[in-house]
PorT family protein
Amino acid sequence: MKNILILLISILSINCYSQITYNKGYFINNSDKKIDCEIKNIDWKNNPTEFEYRISEDKELKTASIASVKEFGIYKYSKYIRSNVDIDRSSNRIEELNTHRNPVFKNEELFLKVLVEGNANLYSYNNTDVVRYFYSKEGSDIEQLVYKRYKINQEKIAENVTFRQQLLNNLKCQHISSKDINKTNYGKNKLIKLFVKYNQCENSELIDFENIQKKDLFNLTFRPRINSTSFSVDNSRYNSTDSDFNTNINFGFGIEAEFIMPFNKNKWSVIIEPTYNKYKSKIELTTQRIQSVEAKYNSIELPIGIRHYFFINDDSKVFVNASTIFDISYNSNVDYEISTDLNIISTVNLAFGAGYKFKDKYSIEFRYHLNKDVLDNYTSWYSTFGKLSLVLGYSIF
């Protein structure tokens, strides 16, 4: 256990370089020159005003600002464009709402994040408490989709939902009804769905950047494993029946479903891994006479846990995970040749692992299972069942 904790602490202490990757991207400067580079991808929660880049791995890190860049992007991930737009920064906090229905616009130069690109484009701007969406259509100027909460009096709050009229006027399509637009709220997912639907209706070339990011949010992985298992049985009344089984090398097999969380640069995931395990060991025990003792433990485990990734480069990453393991045992017992047999019961315990993944396809993990008592239904018996696993992985989806 101590060695596992040291390993986990060491991995968590990896410096920030392993946390932030440099992805292949580009930017277009004020002279309309496109420059390919590697951009420091920090998965901006708030729209940036600058970014760091390098021309290649061995070149120095530079900073480009909104003053010198018209557009920049990370291939197959995200895109930002510079634009002078009228933006309303009215607060959405209840305690800060005013009584004015109409937005108060101010012209600003911003990097807008492109969400959908086609005949009709959708953009977003985030900055702390301000979330605004913008649109343009077939080369028109970019305009804010207007949504504003305001107070009618101290007890009543109303909404300015002009954005629905803007959508109704600009996204006219036989597959989009006024009912569809009236059901659309001022949120990213609903607006993306509507703009994608419009561009498909117009047979427009379409890029849905959010969908590009989400396409790898689920992994299904075959996970064979080699287990080093120890098992001992103790009786508080009769020491003569204590049994320490040999450390046993056995094999197991699991199928892991991994759900990547769509935030924090996909560093977190939830894992569920149904696993088949079989343990069998036999010893001879000397009491008043020599008797054989056989332990059989067959089980289906269901680990449910969380995983955190540390990115090394585009192809490699290490990870740590922690799981709660629900266990269903069957045909499992400790069979004494002379004494009464003991039935093994299902239990719940914890496991911790650390591993390496290559190209999101191949993986290897060392997993430590905390010791558990599988004879907890007996008052005078106690057992210690422990396991260390080497788990290999091959992702098929």
